[in-house]
Task: inverse folding
């Protein structure tokens, strides 16, 4: 699954949101600027909207909009943000059909106890049931976002709770599914990870100030020290008395999303004690063992296949080589004047490195195949550049099932692995051979991780209840606030 | 009260919102384009945000943002709006401190019965009480806008109502103050004017399609025929069976805002059966009778003093002349590089017409004085251009009291009439004489109107309960979503 | 000729450029900001491009672009301009087909003696001959602007001249036609008006610093004192020794453009000793004498007919009244989604004031008729609003001939007066009667002016040689640099 | 020399322009869209301005502006460009101090024979002499760009030439230095490479239509077939009779810029018969032989050190590993709110991959060192991530001399290699060892190329006359047209 797909034809699954929060102890820290940097470090988790909310003496001021971090924030609008005690940030992926400004986060609301800001990553599986309940009580919704629902649940629970913490604990009892949440009440920063631990969430420290964010790479971005992952079911509360931790809910089984290791997370992050880069490299090693081949060079599809390609090379002894040069100046803004544009765009974006592949038997590694068009194009680029054989290796098992826990995967009909066998796919994409990592192989790529895994999108075995079918489509009608 | 004040120093009261709605019967009408035109015709009622919401088969798509009509709508974003059966529009005035993107309208929400869009003009006087009630039940708020509160009230009432109409009627029982509302449910367009009739709202027809909007000038903008004003307390329902009217609530006394006649409304509008232009002209006539003077010419401050100046001229026999040329290219975007910019800006914006005023005794008519700086500047411009006498006449009584019904007036401390007598003001602004229209005179400028008046901002006598003091400031803390 | 024509259908002649220059003596003056204000005051002379060039120690830094003053200049780009000793400004009108970024002014060039900046208003009648000559010597052109040609002529003459003044004098010998020029050499500000005096150019003083600009209203904009008009054929040189004047070329007859008085100039300007407002008012008075009529009210088409309407009212005794309300928020950016947009736009832009015109016999004054569609529309708006008679009066003679001296007039075929008699035009526009000001009447509207007049566009009698026909179209092929 | 330097502190030499031209034979080709794609493929050669000029029936229409390809071109402005027979494109690098809109290319001019468009890459060494000559004849200049000078020379030569080809040949006699030029006359596309062959220029074919451009990677971008390099001193003329070639000028010695192989060109280009990628890989191999070291892993600084790192790994047997993860979302637009921003930006942009480097002896390869700050930062990042040794290897010799042939290199004082020995630099950047490629080694990296080399910036030995010192600074005073 290489990133240019998203630009070109949305042929792939999409990653989800990134969250950030800081509780400032050191006066000298400019938390708005720090949040901006952290969001750059999380940008790979969502490019549809970005936002920063500052808690200044209990009230929030927020800059957020559709667009990338570089587009949403300007010197002008950031200069209007004070340097608050608590600052939240968010980047968001949104499927196109749902590109709704009102869903941008952090969400800032007012309720009976004052103001509240929320940054969320995940997917609430009993969303529909809860929303029905709330609407039956007169609630109104301005978006279909999980964050708004969660805000409501907390507001409702707060009525009969003696503290925001108690309201959050009660809310956690109600909501199910995947959530890595950061909240700011007037005086507290609260972080919460669902009991399954579907999505990453980690704790760091910058001088004496605590930072919570989706991935450790964002800590590196701001020069913060990584302390540890937030545990599944753990609630952290940071206030002027320091840091307090509590496990508020447990699940039978922890189940971190394997697709985070395979594709979503950044390779320089360490999640659950495992380096994402090394997990991918290991996937490449196992992939060779499962699908050995004789060849002259091993290449990765940039950028998502590069790590696994190095593992494949190491295990096989076949030299690693650069197979493609990627044009770093091509963004998704290209629309082009004519119908043949899309085809040409692929050429403009990726160029096979003829000097390396000409006359060679090439192993090409990618992280996944969704519809197959991109892989087909990759194979063609290699053959056009003179490769005599092209062996495609995929560092994850075939995608066959929807994800209900925060990864946006195409409908099952669109997934090529639901319509074809591996042999048929191999013929379709025009490769000489094709090998996928096995489910068993996948289970080993991060076998030293501190928690269990979810491989539901590959295996169909979900680690938590999935939404009841009858409710699935009720909120497919969207409220759209166009930019 | 001339409009350049807003650009320069916000030295004046501010007008409030404009609303628009159309229920399309004729297929050939392009309602999005029509809404855009109507909003241009309402732009004088609010320049801080603009929006259009289209009801397409029961769901809404909305384009709205901070900015003027010309800035918010582009061919690109409008082209994404389908040609729905019902289309609402809104322009909004917002005091600067409250410039919150989340308050842009039309507000589109989802509740138990589907979607609902709201365009509102007015001010709910028991806002705080209702919000407290709702929050006590777990409600969350994303803005401090009246529209969001009204949406909540309707959603809450809808639970125990058999129809949206019934819910609206029950909601009208709860909310107090000024409201001219246009709603769209999935199948109906509903218009509602508060029982006092504080703000204007009128009905028109374009071919066979009904249109509801704040002022008749917006009907002219789109070539629609004016039918009648919506009556105080009247609810109109327009659906595929046609138009239905019902008086749902009455007040002891109707009380249309006199300041609409004096300043807010456009002179080509006809409200409550009275031409705004003629009302202003009549104010000028009475003004002469109350404060006669010998002079060579009568001029109006452009644009708001021009109508009254013609009446003054007619009553007095003193020739009407153009006193100022206004630079139509100056907008509020000018910020300038240096401190002396504001002074120069006034020169750039208005230029006294020396050819007319030199050596003359000049009567200069404006609609109001707030802080006095603008009037002072006007007098100086005339003297610099050679006027030998300058007699200032104001076509309304002195501003002394806050408005709780939808006109934004400066705090009482800032109102010069609360600090000085007319004589002192005359000396402060440097005029040879100064005369205000009397309260009695004001009462006659639209004495053939179909409903009663509110002159609370001048007299301090309010026609409806005003907010209880203890609640006033609770929501002064703002949620701000910066652009 | 009312300004909304330009927005809608370019149905009218177009005004030409505005020029500005200041030589700073007083250190405290912020000349960039002053130039910006002055350009706002000249914006009516051209809205296609705007620019400011600063002479800082002999080198120029320039901000210019397509667009209005408010769009071209930002705090950001102006902040990059130093506060130079000499600052030039320019606003430009460009016929659409020629919308070429490379033609924006001030033009800054380098030649053998260093740098030179030029702001120009006018039209060189022997442009083609001179350009042919220059190209035969190897010259290259990056635009078809007069300013570039003039720069070349000066550069060429400078080779054999001992000073920039001498080069300018020699250049004036070569170029013919209309030019009001402001130049900056490294150390001098030079202003030059052609010997006919076709276009305005005047001198003012701000504290001790001299200012030169197209119209006196721009002096008012910046608080400068008007000193006098630059004389036809006069060259002013301003440097650190002060102001030097010299008549460098004379014509048999001076011939100021009458259309400046009728339409182009701003009413608060005084040109050649005559108030533009009073000239227009006088045109209205004479118009009544030439075409008397019985009626109830006299109205002007905003904004260009308002001054003459007051004269017509005064001469006739028929009361002056406001006939139309103009929507000040409509700009040319409106493009609309559908074909019927243009029609609707007219309604949105101007609204007849029914309260004044209903049941009345209305005299409506405009400054000119080009194609007739706008007048037709104006008459229809009045009749729709209930006028029982509509008498159109035009405060200038029929347009029949092209202008070669800087006013852009439609091709002769498009001019309705070349295809129809006044009676036919009256029927075409649907008026009850129609009267044009006579040529003789026109000659009296500014009969106390200090110089002679050109009425070539009305009479066909030109006061100076016009371009030879064979050359006219050679440069109609345009170099276009699209924004 | 890694690209993020340019974003952050301009600490490195800058690449120069990219040129493109197509002569359309196949009607179905959309040449504007093709040019846009090609410019994306050349974007690495210049990001300061971009432009496309279309020759439509002998006249040109041009879209160009400051900014990247993605910012300059929009659907809106490209849609105004017709699908001409000849289309030129250009991307430009400009040192900041010279960021002048008037220098954007393609330059379109009119001269005695009609119109001419020019796209240029290179540097004319006798610029000052020629400009003096031209100015002495009355020429004016609107920029300091080479392209404007070349246009003048051609226009001047054209007077006494019977064809544009003859004028170009004569012009080539006058101009000296580096130039890869593409011209369009009304009917012909002309490409010209200087007799030294300093800069790349190649010929391709798309269907039956010829294409000329800087690098072969741009041919790949548009799906065109590479035919051959334009030879040093060769002039290609393409018109409706086909392709004509002529060697119009020869030099004693051909001298292609070695820095193109080291850094400027894209690795997937093939220039003078040599793959850029393989040349860099070979540099890495030789580098190991010249500066062997014992280590655990070899890493490259992304992106410019990656190719050489693979060669180093191959020659040494030390495993290649990913040392840094680059944040692809960071652009130069980041300015930050505070002084400490620059430091943090570096962290945000590059993150050392701790999983690979921790506890390792690391060889890190970069292509060059300019001021040394970036290398210092790279070493620090590796040490912070736990590297126990850091050995820096540079795949080119030390930079010590200016380039007069089109590469922008910092002044000699800023070059660290002019102030320190290699040992001192090693200590300054904090590495355990440092090794540069030798001049001799450099000469071998592309030893199978078809032409000779220039290594003047490393050796000080220039292959062609350099500008005479006295003229160097004359045009350092810039005409600046700010955006």
Result:
């Amino acid at each position: 699954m290489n990133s240019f797909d998203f630009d070109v034809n949305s042929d792939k699954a999409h990653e989800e949101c990134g969250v950030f929060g800081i509780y400032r102890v050191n006066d000298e820290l400019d938390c708005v600027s720090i949040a901006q940097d952290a969001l750059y470090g999380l940008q790979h988790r969502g490019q549809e909207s970005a936002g920063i909310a500052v808690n200044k003496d209990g009230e929030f001021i927020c800059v957020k909009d559709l667009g990338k971090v570089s587009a949403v924030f300007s010197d002008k609008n950031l200069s209007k943000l004070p340097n608050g005690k608590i600052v939240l940030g968010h980047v968001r992926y949104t499927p196109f059909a749902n590109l709704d400004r009102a869903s941008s986060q952090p969400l800032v609301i007012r309720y009976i106890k004052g103001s509240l800001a929320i940054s969320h990553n995940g997917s609430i599986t009993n969303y529909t049931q809860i929303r029905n309940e709330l609407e039956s009580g007169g609630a109104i919704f301005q978006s279909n976002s999980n964050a708004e629902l969660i805000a409501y649940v907390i507001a409702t629970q707060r009525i009969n709770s003696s503290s925001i913490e108690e309201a959050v604990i009660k809310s956690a009892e109600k909501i199910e599914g995947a959530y890595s949440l950061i909240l700011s009440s007037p005086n507290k920063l609260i972080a919460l990870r669902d009991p399954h631990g579907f999505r990453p969430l980690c704790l760091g420290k910058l001088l004496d100030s605590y930072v919570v964010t989706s991935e450790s790479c964002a800590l590196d971005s701001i020069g913060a020290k990584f302390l540890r992952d937030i545990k599944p079911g753990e609630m952290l509360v940071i206030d002027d008395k320091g840091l307090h931790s509590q496990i508020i809910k447990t699940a039978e089984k922890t189940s971190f999303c394997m697709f985070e290791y395979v594709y979503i997370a950044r390779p320089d992050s360490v999640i659950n004690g495992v380096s994402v880069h090394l997990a991918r490299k290991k996937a490449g090693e196992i992939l060779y063992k499962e699908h050995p081949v004789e060849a002259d060079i091993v290449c990765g599809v940039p950028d998502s296949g590069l790590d696994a390609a190095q593992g494949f090379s190491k295990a096989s002894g076949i030299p690693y080589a650069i197979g493609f040069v990627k044009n770093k100046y091509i963004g998704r803004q290209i629309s082009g004047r004519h119908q043949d544009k899309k085809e040409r765009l692929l050429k403009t974006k990726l160029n096979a490195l003829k000097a390396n592949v000409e006359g060679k038997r090439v192993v090409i590694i990618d992280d996944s195949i969704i519809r197959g068009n991109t892989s087909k194009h990759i194979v063609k680029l290699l053959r056009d550049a003179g490769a005599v054989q092209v062996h495609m290796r995929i560092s994850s098992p075939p995608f066959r099932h929807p994800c209900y826990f925060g990864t946006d995967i195409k409908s099952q009909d669109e997934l090529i692995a639901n319509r074809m066998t591996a042999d048929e796919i191999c013929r379709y994409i025009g490769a000489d051979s094709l090998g996928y990592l096995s489910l068993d192989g996948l289970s080993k790529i991060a076998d030293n991780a501190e928690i269990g895994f979810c491989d539901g999108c590959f295996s169909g075995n979900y680690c938590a209840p999935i939404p009841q079918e009858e409710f699935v489509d009720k909120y497919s009608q969207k409220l759209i606030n166009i930019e």
Observations:
- The CA atoms of residues 116 and 185 of chain C lie 5 Å apart.
- Chain C touches chain B through 62 residues (CB under 8 Å).
- The mean pLDDT of chain C is 90.
